[in-house]
Amino acid sequence: MEERILYLIRKRKQMMVPTLAVALLFYFILPVSLIFIPDVMNRPSFIYRIPWAWLYAFLQIPMTWFLCGLYHKTATKLEKQLDDINKEKSL
Amino acid sequence: MNPTYFLFLIYIIVCTLIITYWASKRSKTTNRFYIASGSLTGFQNGMAIAGDFISAASFLGIVGMVAIRGYDGFLYSIGFLVSYVVVLLLIAEPIHRLGKYSLGDVICSRFPSDKMRLIMAFCTVTISILYIIPQLVASGFLLRLLLDIDYSVSVIVIGGLMTVYVVVGGMIATSWVQIVKTVLLMSGTFLLTLIVFSHFSWNIEKLIGEVKAGTPLAEKFFLPGNLFDNPLEFLSLQLALVLGTAGLPHILIRLFTVRNTFEVRRSLISSTWIIGIFYLMTLVLGLGTVALLGYDSLMGLDPTGNLAAPLLAKEVGGDFLLAFVSAIAFTTIIAVVAGLVISATTAFSHDIFHHIIRKGKSTENEQLRAARWSALGIGVISTLFALRLETINVTFLVSMTFIVAASSIFPVLLLMIYWKRFTTVGVVTGILSGLIASLICVILGPYIMNPVDGWIKAESVFTLYNPGIITIPIGFLGAYVGTILSSKPSTTIAECNEFYLNAQSGISSRREN
Question: Class assignment of domain B3-29+37-505?
Answer without folding.
Answer: mainly alpha
